[in-house]
Amino acid sequence: MPEGDTVWQAARRLHDALAGRVLTRSDFRVPKYATVDLTGRRVLNTIARGKHLLTRVEGDLTLHSHLRMEGAWKVYGRGERWRGGPGHQIRVVLGTDDRSAVGYRLPVLEFLRTGDEDRAVGHLGPDLLGPNWDGERALANLRTDPSRELGEALLDQRNLAGIGNVYKSELCFLLGVTPWLPVGALPADRAAELPVLARKLLEANRDRAVRRTTGLPHQDLFVYGRAPRPCLRCRTSVRVADQGDGSQERPTYWCPTCQAGPAPAPGSPQRWRDRYHRTGT
């Protein structure tokens, strides 16, 4: 699943391509909206809310989309070849005189009244890249379940919106704790640092083509995707294991030397996976 910075970039591309322009093409290729026609309407803006995209159109209409694992929005100029995938994967095309925004493999695509957007995003916690970010509220949300594993709590968008599997692993490394540490066991100084550091990471990467968390030359990430290579700080082999409730387990990376706290127990849903793993979310 894309991280909040990736979704923010997608929102900016859509906004730059469509905002303020009148739609000359409207092609919805999902049965529910097959007869919807937005041609002649002006696009007002596109914003990201956590990992959700909201494209607002004249007439109190919002097109809500979510990329999940496989979805993508691509923007093409007039006459440019569409390269986002085969035609049967296209779910929607929104076009102006000189641009086409094409949504591929979108698992969530729905219309809302703009005034009813909270139906789709009202459950989300503070948005790490939003204008009304509230770090104190985000930390309070995380602390509502002190026994929950920190990694799982960070992925829960109801606590704070925008962290995915990459930032979960990297943030825990930078805090010096394992993703399996209970939220309530997080030292007070690290807890105070968490929302500040999380926002700093996403803000630093929202304008980058390649995500970086290390500040080191030729090394983009500290732990994510690096098992079993040496930790960049201590040279211990980076580990990877599944973390999740069994229904949705995610590869989670950590350094057993640099990060304090529990590791996944053998035989639990967090099964050991000490092989090289490049899967992203």
Automatic annotation (TrEMBL):
The keyword Transmembrane does not apply. It comes from the Bacteria. It is an enzyme of class 4 (lyase). It holds the Pfam family Fapy_DNA_glyco. InterPro entries: FPG_cat (IPR012319), FPG_N (IPR035937), H2TH_FPG (IPR015886), Nei2_N (IPR044090), Ribosomal_uS13-like_H2TH (IPR010979), Znf_DNA_glyclase/AP_lyase (IPR000214). Residues 259-281 are annotated as: Disordered. Its EC number is 4.2.99.18. Residues 2-103 form the Formamidopyrimidine-DNA glycosylase catalytic domain. Residues 222-260 form the FPG-type domain. Keywords: DNA damage, DNA repair, DNA-binding, Glycosidase, Hydrolase, Lyase, Metal-binding, Multifunctional enzyme, Zinc, Zinc-finger. PANTHER family: ENDONUCLEASE 8. Belongs to the FPG family. This is DNA-(apurinic or apyrimidinic site) lyase. It comes from Streptomyces tropicalis. The lineage of its organism: Bacteria, Bacillati, Actinomycetota, Actinomycetes, Kitasatosporales.
